[in-house]
TrEMBL record:
Top-level taxonomy: Bacteria, Bacillati, Actinomycetota, Actinomycetes, Micrococcales
Protein origin, superkingdom: Bacteria
Alphabetically ordered keywords of this record: FAD, Flavoprotein, FMN, Heme, Iron, Metal-binding, Monooxygenase, NADP, Oxidoreductase, Transport
Pfam families (alphabetical): p450
Full protein name: Cytochrome P450
Family: Belongs to the cytochrome P450 family.
Cofactor(s) of this protein: FMN; heme; FAD
InterPro entries registered for this protein in UniProt: Cyt_P450 (IPR001128), Cyt_P450_CS (IPR017972), Cyt_P450_E_grp-I (IPR002401), Cyt_P450_sf (IPR036396), Cytochrome_P450_Monoox (IPR050196)
Coiled coil spans: none
GO MF entries: heme binding; iron ion binding; monooxygenase activity; oxidoreductase activity, acting on paired donors, with incorporation or reduction of molecular oxygen
Length: 462
């Protein structure tokens, strides 16, 4: 018997609670209102039930890989219609998860970022050129989403979406958005009576969008194979040619397509959200911005056009702390699902069978006063000074998830984000409209909404 929000109704359960306040923001509503329910609580809506953990000690226990593992929440299961057994949506027992994980891990080490560094620099240059040309405030999140889409498209399969050069969007972008929306709707409808019937409406446009994406990626794969070109060092090249060290197995073509879709989905809005939150905190904390600019000047020197080398990216320690702290307050993937490997009792109190699962709500755990002190909502990059990190218990900070199913793209996202933030702090003083109140949109991820910045060129100093 877990606590649940007050006012539960027969049949609809806690539906009214989820959508109390702004109906487009159920995650933020939960953060704001669920405190009185304690460390773990339950939400029921029609036939669906979700258990949510918001306490650091319980979360740390759920990160114990010997007892708990990733489970696919209904929202993630729903994405399987589009991404199948791609890394993010695969069950851990599916053979393609292990194969892809083992084959692709070397492509995501910190060292491997050397291979993507120039592509990241080129995409960042295009964004900087756009900002240089702007004579009015720039829309931060949409601009950064262009950047991250270009970076992941070019590094994954050498696809240039032309985000900075064309008016309007590459047709791939709305097609992908339609597929993701379908996943979200499917996840939500799974709990509804007659959900299946409701889902049949809107299926055809989804199928058309999916067919378009599949054909485009399959054509690129076929072209690459026909060219016998093994020199292209993008992820597609690796997936086509790498064999598993022990078994000699390769990824099949269907799975390669699914991995490309996965990288595009998992790797772009998460990173642009993280970058946008960091820009928000830099813009609204002048002392933090001054320190970040000082660090950028010290490393990059007085030339405003100088671009960080691969080795320099790791040296922006303060800027990295700004990013880490932004991801603490607003982990752009605000939770992840865990369940027991064998029947067990969580915290000696809550029995769980292997069919049970719960959401670790990182958004709330990252603000647990037991770990983060009595001002957990305050932005303070010094929480990530090495001594402070060492002093904290393990498994209390997990914007990238946990265990072997944690984010394979972590180094990729961090390299891309620090590179851009360093360039931005080096080149601009940026100011937000003082009237702007942080407004956060919830799609698959969290993202600042309606946030504009005026980018004023500055003169870097030694
Ligand atoms: C998994 C967050 C960037 C690819 C995850 C998970 C989280 C996460 C929380 C675990 C989900 C779960 O347990 O269900 C983030 C954040 C990012 C980011 C906050 C940016 C700041 C990226 C990038 C890529 C990527 C850039 C690709 C280049 C993946 C993949 C998985 C994953 C493939 C599934 C891994 C597996 O289960 O084997 N990410 N991610 N992510 N992420 Fe990321």
């Amino acid at each position: 018997q877990l606590p649940h929000p007050p006012g539960r109704r027969p049949v609809i359960g806690d539906l009214a609670t989820i959508f109390r306040g702004d109906t487009r923001k159920p995650v933020q509503n939960a953060l704001r209102t669920s405190g009185p329910l304690g460390p773990i609580y339950e939400i029921k809506v029609f036939r669906g039930k979700v258990v949510i953990v918001r306490d650091a000690e319980l979360a740390a226990e759920l990160c114990d890989e010997s007892r708990f593992e990733k489970k696919l929440a209904p929202g993630v299961q729903a994405l399987r219609e589009t991404a199948g057994d791609g890394l993010f949506t695969a069950y851990t027992h599916e053979p393609n998860w292990r194969l892809a994980h083992d084959l692709l891990r070397p492509a995501f080490t910190r060292e491997a970022m050397k291979g993507y560094h120039q592509t990241m620099v080129d995409a960042a240059d295009e964004l900087i050129a756009l900002w240089d040309r702007s004579d009015r405030p720039v829309p931060v999140s949409p601009n950064l989403t262009k950047l991250t889409l270009e970076t992941i498209g070019r590094t994954s399969f050498s696809k240039d979406f032309g985000s900075f050069s064309r008016d309007g969007q590459d047709p791939f972008v709305p097609a992908m958005a339609r597929c993701l929306k379908r996943g979200q709707v499917r996840g939500a409808f799974a709990a509804l009576p007659f959900g299946g019937a409701l889902l049949r409406r809107g299926r055809q446009p989804y199928l058309d969008a999916k067919a378009y994406i599949d054909a485009l990626i399959d054509d690129i794969i076929a072209e690459r194979l026909a060219s016998h070109d093994t020199s292209q060092e993008d992820l597609l090249g690796l997936m086509l040619h790498a064999a598993h060290e022990e078994t000699g197995d390769h990824l099949d073509r269907l799975n390669i397509r699914r991995q490309i879709i996965t990288f595009l989905v998992a790797g772009h809005e998460t990173t642009s959200g993280a970058l946008s939150f960091a820009m928000y905190y830099l813009a609204t904390n002048p002392q933090v911005r001054a320190k970040a600019a000082q660090e950028a000047d010290a490393i990059l020197g007085p030339d405003p056009d100088s671009v960080p080398t691969f080795e320099q990216v790791a040296k922006f320690r303060y800027i990295r702390r700004v990013l880490d702290e932004s991801l603490r307050l607003w982990p752009t993937a605000p939770g992840f699902a865990r369940g027991p490997v064998k029947d067990t009792v969580l915290a000696g109190r809550y029995p769980m069978t292997t069919d049970d699962w719960c959401i670790v709500m990182s958004l709330a755990v990252h603000r647990d006063p037991k770990v983060w002190g009595d001002d957990p909502d305050t932005f303070d990059p010094d929480r990530f000074l090495p001594a402070a990190v060492r002093a904290r218990p393990a498994h209390t900070y997990f914007p990238f998830g946990t265990g072997e199913r944690s984010c394979i793209g972590r180094q990729f996202a961090l390299h891309e984000a620090v590179l851009l933030l360093a360039r931005a702090c080096h080149r601009y003083d940026f100011a937000a409209d003082p009237a702007y109140q942080l407004d956060i949109a919830e799609r698959l991820t969290l993202m600042p909404d309606g946030f504009d910045l005026t980018m004023v060129r500055r003169t870097p100093r030694r």
